[in-house]
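Read as amino acids, tokens; as here:

___
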Amino acid sequence: MSVLEDMGDKLAVDVIAAMEELGDDRFFDKVSKVLMDASPTMQEAFLTAYRVRRAEQRGRAFIEAALKAK
């Protein structure tokens, strides 16, 4: 990964943890808006990492539910 991708991914991990702690499922959007003002490139890296991580979580939850239903 590039430095930008590494930074975006680390921020995504931190934001997901903060979302759980805050109970705010739209917190990532607030962070995204802050990033847009500072660096659209960083915003894009963050959003890509965020979406990939959330998709992976949803995929794992689906697998777990399917296995429990078996």
